[in-house]
Amino acid sequence: MGKLPAFPFYPNDWARDLEEHPLEIEGAWIRICCKLWWSDKRGSVTKALQQWARILREPLGKTLYILQYLQSENIGNIKPDLKKLSENPDCNVSVTVESRRMVNDEKVREQTRLRVKRHREKEVCNGAVTPMKHSLSVSSSLLGTNVPNCPQKEIVDLWHVTLPQLPKIKIWDETRQGNLRARWKEDESRQTVEWWQRFFEYFKGCPFLMGEVPPTNRHKQFYATLDWVIKKQNFIKIIEGRYEEK
Question: Contact at 8 Å (CB) between 81 and 126?
């Protein structure tokens, strides 16, 4: 599996799940999560206890204690039942560690990839053509040698597939291309399709953005559109969570 440069981190969930646990457990879990992220089967790794000890940079006994703690507190899915292991366990015993969040995110990512693929195939079958005069992907030479191409068509398709309740994009002109390219370029963590997938999924928890807030005498009912989202000031407010409580 390709190694994505950005590690998805959810500060609120992390604080809620680990704030009552020792700092050494937090440190051990973040090291394990890094290994789970780099795994071919993202979110799940099976290794000998001795290998886990090298990852955690701890002796076997301390490694067993950490893994037993993570298992007993249900911080991660860990097999087998480590209660049955002695204080001096076989260093070659296999231990599987899973991050539920990471495994679930990977399932959602794959489901979205398949939905986008079906969406594109349907467009081809229907003869649908996005009305654009220019390429949806911009050469990295225009953005700087270290910035990957912005896959605009893929991101637009992702918007349609992830948020079908919101207005569809019919015209993707140079202004909109430029805004999306700017949001992509200004932060390295945004330079993967997976980041945009998580970003769009986040909208589902914001009634205002989803058009679920009834109109008032002063305001019409609002539905977020992709061209509105990628304008700099709107984008910043979304990232800051300014629309979560509306």
Answer: no
- The CA distance from 31 to 67, in Å, is 12
**CB 49 within 8 Å of CB 91:** yes
Peptide bond into 151 cis (omega under 30): no
Sequence-distant (≥ 6) Cβ neighbours of residue 221 within 8 angstroms: 211, 213, 214, 215
pLDDT tens across 45-104, in order?
999 999 999 999 999 999 999 999 999 999 999 999 888 776 667 788 899 999 988 888
Give buried/exposed letters for 141-168 (b at 16+ CB in 10 A, else e): eebeeebebbbbebbbbbbbbbbeebee
Q: Provide the 3-class DSSP secondary structure of residue 78.
A: strand
DSSP assignment string, 126-144: TT-----SS-SB--HHHH-
Sign of torsion over alpha carbons 169, 128, 161, 158: negative
Q: Which domains does the chain have, with CATH numbers?
A: 11-99 (1.10.10), 130-239 (no CATH)
DSSP 20-58: TS-HHHHHHHHHHHHHHHHSSSTTEEEEEHHHHHHHHT-
Structure token digits, residue 115: 């939905």
Is the distance from CB of 35 to CB of 52 less than 8 angstroms? no
The four Cα atoms 76, 81, 86, 90 give a dihedral, to 10 degrees, of -80
